[in-house]
Write a structure and sequence with these properties.
267 residues; mainly alpha; two-stranded antiparallel sheet; 70% helix
Length: 267
């Protein structure tokens, strides 16, 4: 993290002038490192790339779940693509980040990085940037696959971007809260369990209308449901900004990030 620059002495030679690099450069370097580590990790790639892509292809091509009354008059992929995009955000911002950060905390990596010239908030900013870069790659891949399956999205890209950013903030806060308060093994089990439960009950591939009314009323307040339903309103139905879904995501983001900032333990 230290920048080793030089300066000219009176004799025309050069002497080192050690010191911390500019903060933006340190954050960019750490973000690039975090991104490379994430993309080199086989289990993370399985979680963030392979599983969402397989779900989109499998459920889009095979009539495993009856979507005839939930596709809004379009094809199966018009219902599935927004939900799988929401799942991709969940897998990266919550599950992947919680597991990787939890084990970094266990092995003392966070403690050592916290003692470097990069401030702790800068480290979290770098991790967030790595998550966003990974999500851009996920969205590019999944939209390409969805287009190949006959997807025809509607709506304004700005509304989609705001929903994805709000979802990222919400899931990042919850992931960091879990990673900073639980043991690494508990974080691993809990993050994967939450991923599976939200995959089934978050409106990703199974419409919320399939659940009993009391259960559905609870599920609609989950961040994954708000994100998948909001993306579906925009991309499938061509609606404007779904302010209700965005508000739910904003509440989860504020609560999760505030709790993570308050209770996160670095060692």
């Amino acid at each position: 993290m230290n920048a080793r620059t030089t300066e000219t002495t009176g004799h025309g030679t050069y002497a080192p002038r050690p010191g911390a690099a500019p903060l933006p450069r340190m954050i960019a370097a750490q973000a690039a490192l975090e991104t490379r580590l994430l993309l080199r990790h086989g289990e993370q790639l399985l979680l963030t790339i392979v599983i969402p892509t397989l779900l989109l292809v499998l459920f889009g091509a095979v009539d495993i779940v009856d979507l005839s009354d939930a596709d809004g008059g379009g094809g199966r992929v018009d219902f599935l693509a927004p939900g799988v995009l929401a799942l991709a955000v969940l897998s990266t911002a919550f599950t992947g980040q919680a597991i990787s950060t939890g084990f970094e905390r266990r092995y003392g990596v966070l403690k050592r990085l916290g003692a470097s010239p990069l401030p702790r908030w800068g480290l979290m900013t770098a991790k967030t940037c790595a998550v966003l870069v990974t999500e851009v790659l996920q969205v590019a891949l999944l939209t390409s696959v969805a287009f190949a399956l006959g997807w025809s999205p509607h709506g304004h890209p700005l509304a989609v971007a705001l929903l994805l950013v709000a979802g990222t903030a919400a899931f990042s806060g919850l992931g960091l809260l879990m990673a900073g308060t639980l043991r690494a093994e508990a974080t691993l089990a809990g993050a994967n369990l939450v991923f599976v439960l939200l995959l089934v009950g978050g409106g990703v591939v199974v419409p919320l209308e399939r659940f009993p009314a009391p259960v559905r009323e609870v599920l609609e307040w989950l961040p994954i449901s708000a994100l998948s339903d909001g993306l579906r309103d925009v991309l499938r139905d061509g609606a404007g900004m779904p302010w209700g879904n965005l508000a739910v995501l904003a509440v989860w983001a504020v609560a999760g990030l505030a709790a993570a900032a308050r209770f996160f333990r670095w060692e």
